Amino acid sequence: MSCLELKIYPNPILRKKSQKVQTAGDEEKKLIDYMVETMYANEGVGLAAPQVGIAKRIIVVDAGEGLLKMINPEITSREGASTLEEGCLSLPGKSVEIQRP
């Protein structure tokens, strides 16, 4: 496997609406594997498909509690909010406090 090229802001793909994945076939599984490798190689904790130039609703996350691979993720319920400092592989060297549900 090899790493994918990260798209850096202000690349327009980062502002484009991602498309819902209709079927999770071999192409999507391969993309997810490449995304995981790219995330770890760049010392990230999460990576979305648009960050590697693919406008699909796919993300991978490993915030220390195990790897999550998500296709078409949705927030189905919310309880309160938390504020944490976050960075982004598409905004190298930047981190800001973000409030999330």
From TrEMBL:
Gene3D superfamilies in the record: Peptide deformylase
GO molecular function: peptide deformylase activity
InterPro entries: Peptide_deformylase, Peptide_deformylase_sf
Family matches, as Pfam families: Pep_deformylase
UniProt similarity note: Belongs to the polypeptide deformylase family.
Protein name, entry field: Peptide deformylase
Species the sequence originates in: marine sediment metagenome
